[in-house]
Every structure is written in structure tokens, then in C-alpha cells.
Amino acid sequence: MGTIKLLIVFAVMMILLWKKKPLAPVVTGASIALAVLYGTDIVGFFKMVWMATKHQDTVELAAILTLIMILERVLRQQGYLDRMLNALTGLFRDRRTVMAIIPGFIGLMPSAGGALFSAPLVEQAVGKAATAEQKSFINFYYRHIWDYFLPIYPGVLLAAKITGIPLVTMILALMPYGILIILMGLPYLYSLKMKEVETSTSTDDSENQSEVNTVGKYSADRAVRSQLIKDVVLSTLPVVVLVGLVLASVNIILAAIIVVTVLIIKHGYTPRKFIALVQEAVVIKTLVILWAIMFFKEVMTATGSLDGLPLLLGKLPIPDFAVVGLISFMVAYLTGQTGFYVGIAFPVIIAASGGSVSLPLAVFIFVTGSAATMLSPMHLCLSLTIDYFKADLSKVLRKLVVFESIIVVVALLMYLIFG
After folding, report:
1. Which of 266-270, 297-301, 404-408 has the lowest mean pLDDT?
2. What is the pTM of this model?
3. SS3 6
4. Residues 153-181, mean pLDDT to the nearest whole number
5. How far apart are the C-alpha atoms of 22 and 304, rounded to whole Å?
6. What is the DSSP string of 375-386?
7. 137 burial class (0-12, 13-18, 19+ CB within 10 angstroms)?
8. Averaged over 33-55, what is the pLDDT?
9. Of the four listed, 33, 99, 189, 395, which is most buried by Cβ atoms within 10 Å?
């Protein structure tokens, strides 16, 4: 019965979000409702509020998002983003290619909410030439093409550790799915018809407004293209350094602090100018959304509302692989975070499977959970992208369902054949 309460609360939350109600109040309200349904007293409730606020994940994610916002503002103010966009549009004739390359490149930086960094660049690349839903889909979809096999993402590392499958083996088994994700998105990407309008970074939301910029024009001249390649390298150098530091096992917060500090010194920001920069860059609403999501996860954990999910699904008259797939999908969908669902779902499934899982089954579980996180409004990148572009969540989800269903079916077929 306890799990049913969770599913009812989540269903109501989904209905409200589909009706375009603000994310933070909806998720916070769902957290309060869940706490009440599970008989939490006032002391226990405020303890959950405090635990969610001070939790290491909350603090680290808030720090990462804040640093990303500051870094993005510095790069914009100093013209890095303009030079990068102009160079990319000069190198690639089709703006749709640029539209996908940007979030794909930013995706190499494994930070929660990283789609918020690429969203302004996607907006600048195509402006009103694409709809809010098209920009949201491309920004979110291509931001996560590396999740399946890039070893700097915690989900892959955690899955290998929990299952006991060698990391290289796990990466090689998951890599085809990452490649499939990239390839599946291309027909949709190049089916988009770009309207012939001037592109700009302006939006209806004053928090997202920035200067109007015209993108560069494609050039086939060898000398010009050589200069454009140089511009791409120099303009992306701060982000490349940041990604390089992370790949070298430097904590992403420390890496971001190093990069931001170097840029602040290089461009001569005074203390007063830096304070003004922070005030302009940091969007409080984004941090509130983060807190609301982390609070909901804390309430689910503290009330034990997820504990009965495997038992409930196990009673369904369906094959074992469908049960473990549903466990992975439901946990991932309810949490919206790869590392979170791997840490919960994999131990449960391994215990139910007698202490170990085969590689095909592990891949199926991972792919199913990853698909669920891509469809979950609890996924921070999806929430931030929808909020930035002011897109219709239901329209974006309808597109995502098609792609994620395909990849889950492929993983299932591979399990049935080789498992």
C-alpha cells in the first residue's frame, strides 16, 4: 500500500507538470503530500527539509550549477561564445549541425544541469528559426549522448562496481547504445526546417535575456576555414581545459573554480565587477528547482516509499526480465538521476537474481533505467531545458518516448538473444 501512495503522488505531480504548472512548487507540494501520507510528524518533516538542504549532493550540485552559470556569463561577456558560434557556423553550412554539436560538446562535461550551459548557445545558434520544443529536444537529447559509455559518468562506474563486471567490458557493451542514440537523432535533426529569420539570444524571460548576435556565414575558403578552426580552439579552450581536468580526475567543482579564477584574473575583473557578474549570472529560480528535486528524493528515501516497489512489481504476472526492467525503469523515472537509480535498482535486482547478473542483463537494466531518466521530469537537465526555452513538456516528451522506446527494445532483443 505504501508504494501505491508514492505512485499516486507522482501521477498527480505529472498531471500538474503536463498542465504547465511551475516545477518547483509542484515538486515541493508533492514532497509535502508524500510526507503527510506516510505519517511524518512536524519534527520529522523539518528534519527531512534540513537533510535535503545540507546533503552533500545538494550542496555540490548547487555549487556546480552556480559555477556553470558564472562561467557561462564570463564566456559570454568576453566574447568567447560569440567567437565559437561564429566559427562553427562558418565551418558547418547547416545550422542544425551546430545546434547538435554544441550540447554534444558540453555533454563531455559530466555535471548535473549541464544542459543549462548549452541552452543559451543553442538559442544563439538558431534563435526563432526553430520552435521552443525543437530546441529543447535537441539540447537535451544531444547533451546526454555520452551517458552510456563515457567512464567519467558515475552511472557507468557504479554499474560496473556493483555488478562486478570489469569496467572496460561494461563500457564496450554499452558503447553501441551510445552510438545508436547519436545516429537515431540525426534523421529528426535534419528533418527540421529552419525558418529564414535572424537568430538571436533573446527570449521572453528577462532572466535569460542577453545581447542580440548574428551568427557567422559558411565559408569554403581554405585560409578562412583555417582561421575558423583556430577560433574554435581558442574560444572553447576554457571548456576544454575544464573537461580535461575532470578527465584527469580533478573534482569538477575544483576544476570549475580553477577555470573561472583564471578567466577572472585574465580579464581583469575587479571585486566590484565580479560581484556584479555573480549577481547577473546566478539564477535563483534554477537553484530552487534543484532544491525541490533533492527534497523530493530525500522524502522518498526517508519515508521508505521506494522499498516496496520491487515486491509490488514482483507480484505482476510477467516474465522475470520484465520485472527487473520495470524495477529499473520505475526507480529511474521516480528519481530522474542515473547514479541514483543504479545505486538503488542494481543491488535489488542482483539480490533477486541470486547474487549476480549476466552482462546482457546488466546492459538491459542500465539502458532501461537510462531511458527512464531521459523521460523523467525529475531529471534536472530536462527541467532546466524546458524552463529555459519555455517549451511544452508534453510535446518534448512525445518525441523522447519514440527514441527511448527504440533503444530499450534493442537492449531487450540483445538480452533475449545473448542472455
Report:
1. 297-301
2. 0.67
3. helix
4. 84
5. 27
6. H-TT-HHHHHHH
7. buried
8. 91
9. 99
